[in-house]
Amino acid sequence: MLLELDNVTTYYGQMRILEGMQLAVDAGELVCLLGGNASGKSTTLKTILGIVRPRAGRVLIEGEDVTRWPVAQRIANGLAIVPENRRLFGQMTVRENLELGAVLQDGSTFDEDLARVHSLFPRLEERKEQLAGTLSGGEQQMVAMGRALMSRPRLLLMDEPSMGLSPALVQQNFRIIKEVHESGVAVLMVEQNATMALSIADRGYVLATGNVVLKGSASELLHHEDLKRAYLGR
Fold first, then answer.
1. Residues 159, 60: one domain?
2. Does the model's pTM come out above 0.70?
3. Following CA atoms 80, 85, 87, 90 in sequence, which dihedral angle do they give, to the nearest 10 degrees?
4. Which residues of the chain register pLDDT less than 50?
5. What is the DSSP string of 115-157?
6. Residue 51: closest CA among 221, 59, 85, 202
7. Are residues 131 and 177 in the same domain?
8. Are residues 18 and 39 in the same domain?
9. What is the C-alpha radius of gyration for the chain, rounded to an integer number of angstroms?
10. Lesser CB count within 10 Å: N end or C end of the chain?
11. Does residue 108 sit in the same domain as residue 51?
12. What does 6-19 look like in DSSP terms, one character per residue?
């Protein structure tokens, strides 16, 4: 198993956010994490990255306990994130933002990785000298995804990739996520748009108040009556 959360409980101060979280992502899988606001989705990603330390339970990468590892060590071992609201360096160019994604690499594959990002996002090659903060929301999302891919991740964490995008850009974004997944990169995606997420995922988990309340294959969840009522509007 590439990633495992084993009975993880986390707090912010005295407020419990996750309780006994059990979650797994295998190599090459695309797993989505669904749930309403304040359900614990983003905290799950922060716990995987090491930004939040659990009070109980373990975070495992390929069976190794990394619960006490710092963020940089986890990134160096194959994790990358496309954060909510993109979090670009707006006063740096598109190319400079992409270069930051490769900062922990030895440089031997930089040209190859940059070419791959440009093949996924041709617009970024056209905009390479433009300041990232002047791009459209859709273009900024491309930079955020490209920056993460420049680190050659084994597991790509994505936090609300459709947020703030037009319906046409949402469709394009999910096509690219599917293409990245099919290239062999495992993906754990937090997403409010349950229908879109499940349409490309292998499996899914549903969170409510820090607990996994549903899990199963994407097909099972798409047809689950509770999920359809709560998240799919059917």
1. yes
2. yes
3. 140
4. 232-234
5. HHHHHH-HHHHHTTTSBGGGS-HHHHHHHHHHHHHTT--SEEE
6. 59
7. no
8. yes
9. 17
10. C
11. no
12. EEEEEEETTEEEEE
